[in-house]
Each structure stands twice: as structure tokens, then as C-alpha cells.
Amino acid sequence: TREYCVVIDISIKPLLLVKNAVIVLFLKVFYLTVFPETRRLFVGTVAGNICEFSLSEDYNKMTPALTYSDHQGTRMTVVLFVLEVEWLLSTGQDKSLTWHCSESGQLLGTYNTTACVSGLQFDVETRHAFVGDQSGQVTILKLEQDRCSLVTTFKGHTGNITALCWDPIHRMLFSGSSDQSIIMWDIGGRTGTAIELQGHKDKVQGLCYASATHHLISCSSDGRMVIWDMNVTREETPEWLDSDSCQKCEKPFFWNFKQMWDRRRIGLRQHHCRKCGEAVCAKCSSNSSPIPLMGFEFPVRVCNTCHESIPEKDRVSTSTFHNSEHNIVYMHYESTIGILLTSGTDKVIKVWMIPRFS
């Protein structure tokens, strides 16, 4: 089995469909990142090494520069180059995060994680690393020149983290998961706000944020691309309340044996209203509705009271949906030229023109 590294200059044509394009052959490649300002290419391999290459101006020649021995014997999962501090961050299946000086190639530090890392972002101003792993949690680390310290941990997903996106301007972190959800963590607001976005029917594979227009672009394995308008004021989803009986009609749930016996009633199954969070029975929550301002783009269960209280204008979607027509595994948005790149399991790379949002 041969694996290829493909370098494409997307500035040549506004719209491209590239299939089976090959420029240079490598060992088995598991992660690749390129920095166009310096034409430096970093390739993570199955052997746990990172190979740095220097690209020629026409992108037709690659010259080996350095080799970083980060995660010997385990394949790379994420490689991230930070030009402002000349650091090269990487993670592997050995459950470790390492950072090197990209000028000298020297190893600066290592941090061991509790699960395999599947997402990594870095804030240059504060030197915080955002680490998402397969347990579904996001860990924030403060990196120093030769050490790091744990800041906090976010837990909101039921599946593993599949994508991370950091917006340094508005200081917001977006996390995508195999549980098909996206969570926006308001880091800069210091309020602990976490907004959930439900618009995919398969695991989220990529996230990009357009800071200039306040739009989030997400993609999933089923080929769906969603553009979320983050200019609208969104609400946090409420916590689900616990109760032994319906909080509307007060009929007992099936585990409430005492009340079932006293009232001579058969116990009911418990449900929850997605808008108010109350525990309700099926009869008191027989309606469903989309709630876009709470991130629910698809109809979800709501209690009868909340269903009547939602005005029609609040049921209108604030996002746009697009079919990429391939199983997306990676995406990148270049805001300066309005181009979105997607690649899929069909071995096709698609370049989309997104000049502006409406």
C-alpha cells in the first residue's frame, strides 16, 4: 500500500476538483501541515517521527530540513506548527503531547494525557494549548519553555473529540465530537458559558471559524456541511431535572413504586423537555420543534407548554446546510481568499469558493 503527500496551490483557480493527484511519495503519512508564509511542510509518519521539508517557490521541489523523533513506535495524531514562537507541537497514540523548538530541533517538554489525543489548538498570546482526546474531554494546558501546567478540563461530549477550532480574536473554542454535536466554549467571557450546536447526523469531522463575519463552518462524515451564524444571540441548553413524577401532570414514573401503589396507577416512562429541562411524561411532551437559538436545528422533544410559547420566528433556522457529496475527513478554510478545502474518503479534494456569507 502506497501513501502520498499532495501539495496543491489553490490560488491558481477559484474552483478545483483534484483526484488522484501525486507530487511526491513518502512513507506512510498520518498527519500533514504546511505553513505557506515560510513554505515549511511538516509530515507526521506511522513511525512516530515528524519530517520537516522546505518547499520551493513553485511547490515543485521539496528539500529535507529536520527530523523530529517525537513518538517512537506510535503513529502521529496531530502536528501543529506555531510560527510566532517557533514551536512544533505534536501528539501521538502514545498519549503524550510534546513541543520542540523548530529552530534548533530541541525537545522542550512533554505532557502525558489520560487518553489518545485527537485534537489540538494553541493560543499564541497566552501560550495555552487546547487538547481534545478520545475520552471526550478538552484539557487546557499552560505551556512554558521547558514545562507546562494544567489549567482546567472541559467535559461536555459523550463521544470522543474529533475536531477543535480556536478563535483568538473572540477567544472562543469550538469542539466537535463523534456524538454528532458541537460545543462552543466561551473562554474569553470567563462565565463558563457552553453553547451546544446540533446540526449533524454523523460524527463531526472538521471545524473552521471565520472571525471577520462570525460564522462557524462544520462538516461531518455523511458529507453535510453547515454554516452557523454566530452573530445571533444563542442560549445554553438547560440541565435535565430529576423527578420521580411528571413535573406537569404529577403522574408517577415507573420506578416510583410508592406513588404508583398509593394512586393505583401504572408508572410512566420519563422524558425531558429540551427547552426547559423538566422531567415530563410522553403525554405532556407529545410535540417536537426545532429550537435554532438553542442549537437544535432538527425537531426535538419539548413539553406542551414550551411548544406553545415558542414563536414561529424562533423556529426558523439560523444556519445553512450544504451537501459536499463526499465523505469528508478533513477541511480547511482560508479566510483571506474565501476558499474552503475539503478532502474525503473517495480520494477527492474539493476546493469551494465562499467569498461572503449571507
Written overview of the protein:
The chain is mostly beta strands and 358 residues long. The chain has 2 domains: 4-237 and 320-353, Methylamine Dehydrogenase, Chain H; 257-315, Zinc/RING finger domain, C3HC4 (zinc finger) (Herpes Virus-1). 4% of the residues lie in helices and 48% in strands. It has 2 helices and 30 strands. The chain has helices spanning 257-263, 304-309; strands at residues 4-5, 16-19, 24-25, 29-35, 40-45, 49-55, 62-69, 76-82, 87-92, 96-101, 107-112, 117-123, 128-133, 137-143, 148-155, 161-167, 172-177, 181-186, 194-198, 204-210, 215-220, 224-229, 271-272, 279-280, 287-291, 296-302, 319-323, 328-334, 339-344, 348-353. The chain has a 4-stranded antiparallel sheet, with no helix packed on it. Strands 4-5-6-7 form a 4-stranded antiparallel sheet, with no helix packed on it. Strands 8-9-10-11 form a 4-stranded antiparallel sheet, with no helix packed on it. A hairpin with a 3-residue loop joins strand 13 and strand 14 (137-143). The longest helix has 7 residues, at 257-263.
